[in-house]
Amino acid sequence: MNISVDINCDMGEGMMNESLIMPFISSASIACGFHAGDANTMQQTLELAMQHRVAAGAHPSYPDKENFGRTHMHFQPDAIYDIVKEQVDILANIAARLNYPLHHVKPHGALYNMAATDKTIATAICRAVLATDKDLLIYAPNGSCLIEAARHINLRTCNEVFADRTYQADGSLTPRNQPHALLHNVRDMAAQVLLMVTTRTVNTTGGTTIPVIADTICIHGDGEHAVEFARAIYDLLSMNNITIKSG
């Protein structure tokens, strides 16, 4: 059985580990200034991605540097469209100057979580992406409103799972403010990744097993074990003859 999967990481967020992570991933989602980063970090991260032949994408957020984009905010659809389009355009323009076209868009933090369950937010995001570049992929959880909205307007999609987060029975991630939201050791993380990629299932905190689609595996660049996890996932997939490539 030939299996291929993407390894993605959120980058350009002010972490000092990105040059150590980049060799072990196949796509990078780059902060566009609203939760982290600025024009200089965007260019530096794009140049690092180019060096390692890693596909680059935009990582737009609510305007929330104070809480790293994790505050649930409420905007009208047109405002969400503007917020997302502005960020994707900024990164796309820098990428164009470097002659390294963008590959995907993955919303960040609260914007990502709210778009997963809110059709109106998801539609506004996808409209903004389509207006920038119809060939960009949308990274989002399988079965989410964001995946459905993207497909409705013929944007390509990439179903995302998380290496370092635990899952609830409804398929959502365990909220960060609850116990056992994060996986902290390589053994548990590796077991979850291999299960998701090879069986398209994941075990929940409640003890049930639910279906997932793992087109791309996310590593959080701001995670305590980000470098260790990236290397471990890369080695794990390689040892199991699973091809690592961007979507």
Keyphrases for this structure?
247 residues; alpha/beta; 7-stranded parallel beta barrel; 10 strands
Structure, described:
40% of the residues lie in helices and 17% in strands. The protein starts with a strand and ends with a strand. Strand 2 (27-31), helix 2 and strand 3 (55-59) form a beta-alpha-beta unit. It has a single domain, classed as TIM Barrel. The chain has helices spanning 18-21, 39-52, 77-97, 109-117, 119-132, 145-152, 186-199, 226-239; strands at 4-11, 27-31, 55-59, 104-105, 137-140, 157-162, 201-203, 209-211, 216-219, 243-244. The strands form 2 sheets. It has a 7-stranded parallel β-barrel with strand order 1-2-3-4-5-6-9, surrounded by 5 helices. Strands 7-8 form a two-stranded antiparallel sheet. The chain has 247 residues and is of the alpha/beta class. The chain contains 8 helices and 10 strands. The mean pLDDT is 96.
